Amino acid sequence: MAKQVNIREALNEAFQALNNKDDRTHYFDIHDDSLITHGIPGNYTNNKEGMKKYYKDVWQAFPDSNFAFDHVIVEGNEAACMFTMTGTMKGEFMGIPPSNKQVVFNGIIIFRFNDSKIAERWEVIDLLSIIKQLSIRQQLSALRNGIFEYAEIKANNELKEKINGLFKKHLTE
């Protein structure tokens, strides 16, 4: 008979690991090796390795980051969580230069568990609220990087150069 997993306890363990400034790597142990992710930016793969890289980049850019679960709903082997993250942008993140400003933003994650491990996750982050809290230089970098995410632009070097030219003056000052 399969062991009954307490998803609330597993999520509590995950968030303690996520906020452990001394060793956050335990957070990844709570995820299955065959993890599938949805909602992590496109320059990261949608598997466990991509999620690891994403969170390591978040922690590098926001070394004082702190996550809190605001609401948790558990149904069967799935859980939905609203969260808040606070942190000071001390390093580059996704091509956006550091602002040295503290940001606060919200998001929602839906987890699907396989036994005691997270097997799949869907993440939605309020990126607009983050961008609004940054300086104009960071806002322009975020806008340019967002434009570059479109497949048509990724495949067209001439268009990339034109867009870079539009932003160059404002991003190098």
Gyration radius, rounded:
18 Å
Q: Give the overall silhouette.
A: globular
Unreliable residue stretches: none
Which strands sit side by side, in order, in the main sheet? 1-5-4-3-2
Work out the strand percent.
25-35%
Helix content: 25-40%
Q: Give the N-terminus to C-terminus distance in angstroms.
A: 64 Å
**Helix and strand run:** HHEHEEEEHHHH
DSSP, total strands: 5
Number of domains: 2
CATH architecture of the largest domain: Roll
Quickly count the helices: 7
SS-based class: alpha+beta
By CATH, the topology of the largest domain is: Nuclear Transport Factor 2, Chain: A
Major sheet attributes? 5 strands, mixed
Report on this structure:
With 173 residues, the protein is α+β, with helices and mostly antiparallel strands. It has two domains: 7-133, Nuclear Transport Factor 2, Chain: A; 135-173. Helices cover 40% and strands 29% of the residues. The protein has a five-stranded mixed β-sheet. Strand 2 (66-75) and strand 3 form a beta hairpin. The longest helix has 16 residues, at 157-172. The N and C termini lie far apart (64 Å).
SSE diagram, text form:
Blueprint: H1 7-18, H2 26-29, E1 31-38, H3 48-61, E2 66-75, E3 78-88, E4 102-114, E5 117-125, H4 127-132, H5 136-148, H6 151-154, H7 157-172
Helix pairs in contact: 5-7
